[in-house]
Structure formats: C-alpha cells, structure tokens
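Table S2 (continued). Query chain:
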Amino acid sequence: MVASSRWIRLLPVVLTAALALGPGLSAQPGLREDPEFAKLVKEWTTAPEFISPLVDHLPLAPGVPTPKDVLGHHVGAPRQLTYTRQAYDYYRRLAAASPRVKVTTIGKTDEGRDILIVFVGSEDSIRNLETYRGYLAQLADPRRLTEAQAREIVAKAKPIYFFSGGLHSAETGPPEMLMEMAYRLAVEDSPLIRRIRDRVIVAILPVAEPDGRDRYVDWYYRHLIDITDERDRITGPPYWGKYVFHDNNRDINYSQVTMRALLEWYLQWHPPIMHDLHESVPFLYTFSGQAPQNPTLDPILYGELPWFANFEMAQLTKYGMPGVWTHAFVDMWSPGYLAFMSSNHNGMIRMYETFGNGGATTMKRRVANPEFPGAQDQTTRQWYRPSPPYKEVVWSMRNNTNYMQTAALSALELTSQFPDVILENFYAKSRNAIEAGRREAPHGFVIPGNQKDPTRVALLVNLLRRQGIEIGRTAGPVRIGDTEFPAGSYIIKRDQPYGRLAKILLEKQEFPDPNLRTYDDTGWTMGLMLHTDVRPIADRAILDAAVEPVAADVRPAGTVTAGASAAVLVVPNHGSNHMATLRWRLKDVAVRATEKTFTPPGGPELPAGSFVLTVNQGGRSIVDKVKQAIEPLGLSAIGLEQAPDVPAHDVDLPRVAIYSTWGNTQEVGWVRHAFDMFEIPFDLIYKERVRAGRLRADYDVIVVPNQGRGSAKSLVFDVPSKGRPLDYKRSDRFASLGMYGESDDITGGMGLPGVVELETFIAEGGVLVTLGGSSYLPAEYGLTRTINAQRPSPQFYAPGPIVEAEILRPEHPIFYGYTDRKIPVRYGNGPLLQVPEEDRDDQVLMRYPGGEAAVLSGLMRGAGEIRNRPAIVDVPVGRGRVVLFAGNPCYRWQNHGEFGMLFNAVLHWNDRPARGARATTPTVDARP
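Corresponding output:
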C-alpha cells in the first residue's frame, strides 16, 4: 500500500516529464534529428491534423543509412515511388549497417524476383533469431509441453509481429512506409521504440507481390504521375502478377508461387501476429473481426481483434487524427485471405485499409462521393467511427505514410506492453485446437482410399498438407464405429494444432445469419469442390486409428498393364483432370474416346470417355511412350487383345485461344493458370487479334473466361477512353510493361467489329466457350439468337455458395468422367439463361434444380430464382457451336471437380452428339 501511494503521488511528475520530452514523445539521447525531414514532411502533409508526434521527426544515427541516403528522397515525397530492387537495396544496406536488422530471402516470384523478409529487433533478438523461432515453434505445437514448461517458454520468448505490404500493387503506400518504419525501429532511442525493440521481434515483408509492384510503378510513371484530379483517374496496368490480380488475397489453396513461398515461411517461423497493410477507404480502417464470424476459430481471437483495433483508434484520435474507424467493412467469415494464414494457424490476423491515391501524386478527393454507393456513409459519425473523415480532402502519399506508420507503431506499442499475453494467447489457441478435436465432433475426417480417381484424392491431401495439417494413411482396412474403410484411406485427426483449420476447410459452411452480407465467398467445402468423398467422423475412435504419417506429397503411381498380345491400350476416364494432360502429352499419337460405357472380357465396366490407343502406330509399339506419359500422372492403362465394340470418335487436338479484355484479366488468369498447370496449350488473345479477323484460320476453340463485371457491354467495350491512347508496351525505361501481351492502346475493347469477327468464327465451324458473366455476350449480342439471358432480382444474393446441379444429357462429351447425375458446383452469379422450349431437350446439358435444399454449402438468398435454370447450354450456330456455362467451372484454384467439364468442352470440340433422349425429362423453366 505504501509503494502504491507513493506511485500515485509521483504520477503527475512522471506525466509532466513525459510530455516535456518533445515531438517524438521521447528523448533521443545521443541522436540528433533530421531538420530537413521535419521541414519537408510538414510541407507534404496536407493538414496539421494528418500527422502524429510518432512520425513527425527522424533521428540520425551515424553510419546507418536513412531511406533518403539510398533512395535520394524521404519516404512520402510527392511523385516518388520505389521499385522493388530499390527497396531491397535499402534494406540490405540497413542490415549491413545495423546489428538490429537482418535480411533473408525466402524464395522467388514467377518472374524471378527475390522475396525478402526483414527482421528488426534488439541486437539480442537478431543474434538469437533461431532460438526465438524455436520457442514459437514449441508454443505452436504444445503437445509435448506441460503447462509449467509452456510458462517457462513464454517467459523467455518474444512475439514476432509480422507486417506485409504491397500485396495489391495499386496500393502503393505500404512498401514506402515500411522502409521508414524499419529505420525508425532500428535507430530511434525513445523509451517507446526501445521497449518495442527489446520485447518484440518485427518481421517485414517489404513487397508481397514484387512482380506486380514493379509493373505498377512503371505504369505510374508512364501514365499516372501527372493526374492531380481524381475525375481524370484512369485504370491501372492490365497485370500485376503473372496470373492473378486482386485475387492473390483470395488464393485459399496457395496456388501462386509467391503466396506459397510466404506460407512456407510462415509455417517455419510461427509469428503470433500477421498484419496485412492495404489501401482503400478513408482515412484508416483497422480490422476488428466483425460478424459474420467463423465459429470454428478460437473465441480468444475475437477478443484480441477489437482490443488492438480500439487501442489504435484511441491512440490516433488522441493525436488529433480524424477518420480512424474499426467496424462495418471486412468480416471474419472466409478463411481465404492471405493474412488469414495467421488466424487459420492459431495466430492473430490484423489488417489496415489506409486512404491512398493509387500513387504518389497529391490530389483532391471527394470522400462522400455520390457516384459510389456507400461512400456517403463513410463520413458519418458512428460508434465505431467517433471522428469521421472529411467529405472532401486534399490527400498525399505522406498523409498515407503518417496514418499507417502511426497506427503500426501503436500496434507495436500495445504488443510491447503485453508480450506475455500475446504469447500466452498464441499458446492457448494452439492448445485449445487440440482439445477441441478431442472434445467436439467431428473428431476427424476420412478420405476413403478406394475412390476411382486417385489424382483428385492426392490433390486434396496435398493441399491440406501444404497448410501444415497432419494426415495419416492406413496400412490396412480400418473400422471406425460401424464403418470399415479400405486400406490406403487418409485420416485427418482433429486433435492436432491445426485441427480447427481442417474442420474449416472440410466441413459444410452453414452461414450464421442469412440477413448478413459478407466480403467474399460463403462456401468453399473442399470435398465438394474437388468432387472427392470426405467423411466427417463423430466417433472419437478415429483419434486412436492406426495410421502412418504422410510425410511427403502424395503422388499416385500410374500403371500400364499390357501383355504381348495387347492390340489396344485403354485409359479409363474416372474424371481425372489429367486426362486432358495425357492427350496433349501424346499429341503425336492417335487417340479415340469411347462414347458409351463398356465391359472388356474379364474386366470391370469402363466409363464413357475412356481413351483407346492402338498399340502399333507408325510401325512401332507405343506402349513405352504411353507408360512414360501415364505413370507421372497417376492414371492407368490396360491392354486388350481387340478394340472394344463400342461407338468412339477421334480425339482431335484443337488449336485453342483464350480471349482476354485488357481491363479485366484476373478471371482469365485463373483459366490460364489451370490450362498451364494441366499442360493445355493456348494462345492468349486480345481485342487486337479479334478485330484483325480470320480467327478460324488459326483457332478451333476460343474460350472467353468470366469477364465484363456482369455485363456484355463492359466485355465488348472494356476500358473507357479518356481521350488519349493508353499503351501497354515494354521499353528499356518500362521493362515490366508489355508482359503477357502488348497494346498500343488498351482502351475501347473489341467493339462491334470484334463481335462480328466472333460471329464469323462460329459460322465457319469454330467453337466459342463462354464462362460465367461472359455468357451474357452471345445471348445479348445475338451470337446465339434464340438464347436469352436475365439477371436475378435485387433481392437475390449468392456470394459463392456450392449448389447442386443436375446433368440432363450424360451422353454429351462434356460429362465424360462424371458418373453421378447430380453434382456439386460453385454458383458463379452468371446469367439466368432462357432456352426455347423446342430446343431444350437438345441444347440444355445441365440445370440448377434450385431451392434451399439444393444449396450444399454457403449462402444463397432467393434460391428459388434459379430453379430449373440452365447451367450449361450447347447451341449449334452455322457450322460451329457456342457452349455457354452460366457458372464458372474454373474458379480460382478451387473447383477442380468442375475443371473437367471445361477441359472436355475443349478436348471434344468437334464431337457434339446428335440430338437424343435425355436421362431424365424434367421441365426446364424458361420463364422470367
């Protein structure tokens, strides 16, 4: 009591001394501050309330380079953006000069750039990084720890606070700010920074998408630097990364090279906090984990998120900075955002959205812009926005830096005040995940080992393993409860650190409140997406099942079984996407596809779409060649003494083009990625090639991926012109532009002349395949004159659910490899197609039954609106055809079970079956 009373009496003195320490809220013993920095930053900050005492100064440390020493300008300078190589040069020089900084390389991007991680901390932290990494690894997997041992580790460990910047290349501020913050953390000697440095290890991903960063900086200097009025703003470059644009933050299966490298690093280092820095809404939004929330994640997380967000909001508001808020933006439902690798693995996800101009040019902005729905609300006072942003503002890159860095330092301040709490929570969430698997059903999942297509089973297992989920395999048959599973079944037990993540990825998504909206998809159940049997197990006996750990990626071995008397080889089509890969690997071999099921002598029934290859072709045996192609793909081939007596057709390899607009390349990128991964060759074409005509001379199939933002008009006319050409071309000055295609002017789209050329292509025998929103094009521009396309009502809401679809023409080659008549598909918000009654039996290949019962995972509000609507339509036009997918069968790297329909449409391009009876004859509702 005496000590407490004495502290209370001294408190006014302590506070007075702290307030007298100057603009940095701290003394800087031995360091002088950079007067030029203070002067210029004050000039670049467009209003005095847009800066804080944490960032209005910069100490100078002898021998340690500031960002200006390397870049030639201070961070936040108008009209200055930093290329990846410049940022890397700065961090490497900083590390060379300071024992408090370490730079590591964790991989390469698609285009060969390094991916860097930078550590900043005390000299002890940097010297003993591996020791601290070991402590976090123990807390991340506490199965070998007692509670007493865990407490001992927490007392010795330090949390790693991990910042990621530049994931979205048009959000240019974070890579700039992080350089200054790294320097400040390394050299500043204030009590606040010393405490952060001593108690926290800061890890920085300087540029999360290096390829896109350099491309966008090139584009900024080529086209954007002189735009000072937001009404004159133009589009960004057509590409960021090689395949995907904004979706690098939606790559739930980590398909992209750069994102995969980051995940691998994360699982080695286990940072308890991962903080993703973005730009969009004014002036700074700090993520608080609002509803809808995924209930499988640990409840501790939902206490941590508002704790940090409210602290940051309070701190910045205390400094007089308006426009900081914490709610009504991003929710906690989808696990697919990049930084959710943290919360998915028992850490804490953090995220900012800071106001930005898409570059470093200062401009006047209308925050309450009537042209953008919802923008007006961003300037209102709410309980989560006590000091709203202004309706209009002049905004600069330095404003952006001030806000983001002040908030980030505040987050580090809170972490440094409670490092033990952060570590205790990290340990508790890891421990709770294990206990939840023992306590709550399902206690695990089984992937039966006798599935006909082992390639999709292997893919599912490998995708789960990629995220650190432990999987075992049974050596023999195993009985769990009343069910016996065959040898070779895969078992995922939930009493493991990432058991919660296994449940999130494999369970059916039950959306908690149909009245809520969500930021991204509502359904992602992996078994449904891959058309692979996955069984949730409520019996605790699964936790005791004998398994061998799967310690490496599963690669099913393909087999060729053929005696000397074999005349043909048959490759059964059980739905593997590698069937398309095989056909192109055997491009010099004649291949036929069976059109019906058949049973060879002494063998099992083989499905339609199986490949038949004559053993002797061109005077020599192809068995060895087929074996070399099949074995790595996990397929099988059997030899028969004679060809099966069943209708078949030649599988003629088409010349394929994928059409892309210049203004919406992302969905195209996912199709390109799938075609590349499965080795389907294609040309990527744009408006220039379409308008040039003579398409049929070069191509048999043109695929138009989901594009156009739900409008055929936006697909046809694409990027609006601002009165001058927008070139996308490589040069010595702009070496990152012109990748994946070049254009003298990306504006204008294919226009009506391009539509006419597509019409000619179809009339001359070509096949046009449209996916999702692109299927408005043939319906609305008369390429399929009898097909109409409608949009659902405003009340309809379907953010990526998985729904049931019914195959109506199972004999059609599109469905080779599909044996079930009802299959799960992702609903892609494409058009509601209408087909004339007299054509339905022939042209409608698959439909959506619709209704609540047909929603298999996720949310569809107004599910009756799609009742009996066509899902796939195949329309003969002239000598060619148009195949319209109302949904998107190649969505991100997720719905692999649907890829086969697209691949079949391409592979069997000239094999449309004659009009025939359907397997069932339900009514296809064509009414509005």
